[in-house]
Amino acid sequence: MSRDTIWQDDLLDRKGDAEFLEDFLVNRMTERNAIGRTGSYVLNINAAWGFGKSFFMERFKRQLELSEHPVVMIDAWKNDFSDDPYTNVIAEIEAYFQAGVAPKRPDMLRLEISS
């Protein structure tokens, strides 16, 4: 799969936005790492219903995975029935690690969880 394949059905030409956003996030993490600040980023896309948030985020997730970045996507609408959104967040993060996903990039930390 290529970036062009990921965005081939994008009628609103959001591939450029996704590339800008990926570059921004990578550069921000590089800057933070250079000064000894570690951590992660949470990305939130806010728009009215029908504006293509899910479309964009699903493809952006694939793009980041293609670049071998670790990605966990939380779809709030998918589990909207829950009274405790924290449970959904933790479940998605746990599923990511349970899948045995290991970063392929040498600059990424590999985390092993045993129960």
Would you give an account of this structure?
With 115 residues, the chain is mainly α. It has 4 helices and no strands. The protein starts with a helix and ends in a 17-residue tail after the last helix. Residues 109-115 have low confidence and may be disordered.
The biggest beta sheet reads: none
Rg (C-alpha, Å):
16 Å
Number of helices: 4
Helix content: 40-55%
List its traits.
115 residues; mainly alpha; 4 helices; 45% helix; disordered C terminus
Produce a short descriptive summary.
It is built from four helices and no strands. The chain has 115 residues and is an all-alpha fold.
Helices and strands in order:
Layout: H1 3-6, H2 15-34, H3 53-66, H4 85-98
